[in-house]
Amino acid sequence: MAQPTSHNAYLPGYAANQIQHHEWRTAENSAAYLLPSLKDLSTTNPIPTLLDVGAGSGTISASLAKYLPQGGQVLATDLSPEILERARSHATQAGVTNIRFQQASVYALPFADASFDVVHASMVLCHLDAPVQALAEMLRVAKPGGLVADRESDLRMWSYHPQLPGIDKSLKLLRATHEAAGGSVDGGARLVSWAMKAGARREQITASFGTWCYSTPEERRVWGGTLVERVRGGGMRQKALEMGTATEADLDEMAEAWEQWIGTEDACLGCLHGEILIRK
Amino acid sequence: MAQPTSHNAYLPGYAANQIQHHEWRTAENSAAYLLPSLKDLSTTNPIPTLLDVGAGSGTISASLAKYLPQGGQVLATDLSPEILERARSHATQAGVTNIRFQQASVYALPFADASFDVVHASMVLCHLDAPVQALAEMLRVAKPGGLVADRESDLRMWSYHPQLPGIDKSLKLLRATHEAAGGSVDGGARLVSWAMKAGARREQITASFGTWCYSTPEERRVWGGTLVERVRGGGMRQKALEMGTATEADLDEMAEAWEQWIGTEDACLGCLHGEILIRK
Q1: Where is the Methyltransferase type domain (chains A, B) (predicted)?
Q2: In terms of C-beta density within 10 A (0-12 exposed, 13-18 middle, 19 or more buried), how is residue A223 classed?
Q3: pLDDT value at position B174?
Q4: Which of A190, A236, A248, B250 is most exposed by smallest CB count within 10 Å?
Q5: Which residues does B139 contact at the CB level (< 8 Å), separation at least 6?
Q6: Do B209 and A161 touch (CB under 8 A)?
Q7: Are B72 and B50 in contact (CB under 8 A)?
């Protein structure tokens, strides 16, 4: 499946700490809004199919597979064959057998119309320069009566303590870099709008908001570690220096602020994500 | 129970639309983080007691009462006897019988140490000029092994669509008015910190974040209606004009923006709230 070259690539990449955060994600902490519908589906359909689009390292996909009945199948797709290899290993290690993997672009899913009972994505559309086109493609491959489920960040909505200037700077940089790469910082707020532009009627859409919370020492290490790595040596540092949006000294200040945050016992950070379920 | 006069009063007040939003609140949409613990408690304790502090019109209190076993009791307190009368009527109408009401200040709860299995508050501490003192008082009246549960807004974290300048202005005004009245705009982010300052150890605290979502026509009417009323004729308009933080024309623009938002089919708004459970 060729990548449409007119579209943007996935900027954050797959550095060690970025992967560590990706792999922290589960159905429970990242797709809880979908679980009641999956449970309902499993009582009426013994062989449901779920397509997970832009699945990355696949921890949410494998976690979702556990909510399907024995005959249910997850198909996890991503543009990157390398990350799908990692996803495959994760599923094997987790003992999840009702899952398959296939390289695909969300803009040109290699499936017939009305192929899947559930089509799911998490933090995919917010990275794309044509999110409505991607959502329309997800709707296309969902069966009539099936569900399209999507969750996207609002990157402006990070509630944290303590208020360190270096953290604030790093969030501004993150948003600027994200937008420069073609993504939307406010995707979470625009999901209903995107869904309607992609062809859904308002009454087919159920909107909600979800969160991530980082507060325990382990959670702070996972989340703060991702940010430290991105500003110390990852793609965000390189991009910021190229674009001139931050100096070496700025980036070092950001990394130090995150390290301080990781070590602060009463530190806390919450992120707000928009969520939609579209009943096709 | 006398109100300590050194402390601030509850600014938003009880205008019709403010009440309408207050009464939209239930255990499910405003205290979901507490419900698994309440269910656990109900299996081990046939007569649990829950103190709901700053209960206002009491819809969350009455809703929580349904999660207790038959012998369980909710005691709902508020500084305002008038609003407690309304709470009492609501409970009667809802057929909730295991609930009582008592006027009290959160700063001087008229109860012995270790009186309640659960002490709960929702959007109370963020209005107070001494939130740590209030939280310490809530901890005092919780039984050892019991729970203190609290949820507070981060008023900076409103994710919405469409981006109308009048809405943005009204949120800035809301935050300024809230702070001028002695409240904290970032309470949701500071809950772990407040809890530790109030005497809790980090390992006693479980932090999470929750949300409110307004997206359907009915949800938009409830939430947007509150804001329209507050800027058209409520205490916020009066305060803004007194403080000189907005003109009549500004306030009218804000009201019109919210009216436009209410009528926008793909409009959406999410709020982010911090949550803590403290196991005493």
Answers
A1: 51-148
A2: buried
A3: 93
A4: A248
A5: B119, B148, B198, B199, B200, B278, B280
A6: no
A7: yes
Q: Which residues of B touch A191 (CB under 8 A)?
A: 268
- pLDDT value for A21: 72
Which whole-number Å values give the CA distances from A134 to A51, A55, A126, A195, B267, in the listed order? 14, 14, 11, 10, 21
Max intra-chain CA distance, chain A: 58
Asked if B55 and B76 touch (Cβ cutoff 8 Å), the reply is yes
Mean pLDDT of chain B: 93
Structure tokens at B5: 């006069």
Instruction: Yes or no: say if A109 and A81 are a contact pair by the CB < 8 Å rule.
Output: no
* B216-230 pLDDT, tens digit each: 999 999 999 999 999
Q: Among B186, B193, B209, whose Cβ lies nearest the Cβ of A211? A: B209
Confidence category of residue A12, pLDDT binned at 50, 70, 90: low
CA B126 – CA B187 distance, rounded (Å): 5
Q: Is the pLDDT reported for residue A223 higher than 70?
A: yes
Cis geometry, peptide bond prior to residue B162 (ω within 30 degrees of 0): yes
- What residue type is B247 in one-letter code? T
Over residues B56-87, the pLDDT tens digits come to: 999 999 999 999 998 999 999 999 999 999 99
CB A196 within 8 A of CB B266: yes
Helix (H) or strand (E) holding B19: helix B16-22
Domains, chain B, in order of start with CATH, read: 16-279 (3.40.50.150)
Please tell me whether the peptide bond between A162 and the residue prior to it is cis, using omega within 30 degrees of 0. Answer: yes
Which residue, A81, A82, A7, A68, is CA-closest to A35? A68
Q: Tokens 């269910």 belong to which residue?
A: B39
Contacts of A211 in chain B (CB under 8 A): 208-211, 272
Round the CA-based radius of gyration of chain A to a whole number and report it. 19
Residue in B161, B193, B211 closest to A189 by CB: B161
- Kindly report the backbone phi and psi dihedral angles of residue B238, in degrees, each rounded to the nearest multiple of 5, phi listed first: -60, -45
Beta strands in chain A (DSSP E): 49-53, 73-78, 99-103, 116-122, 142-161, 205-214, 268-279
Contact A215, A269 (CB under 8 A): yes
Contact check, Cβ <8 Å, A274/B268: yes
- What is the model's pLDDT at position A125? 97
Number of inter-chain CB pairs under 8 A, A vs B: 111
What pLDDT is attached to residue B233? 87
ipTM above 0.90, yes or no: yes
Torsions phi, psi for B179 (to 5 deg): -70, -40
d(CA B137, CA B131): 10
Token pair in block for residue B230: 């507050």
Residue B19 has pLDDT above 80, yes or no: no
Amino acid at B258: W
At A15, is the pLDDT very low, low, confident or very high (cuts 50, 70, 90)?
A: low
3-state secondary structure of B91: helix
- Chain B hits for A215, Cβ within 8 Å: 192, 205, 207
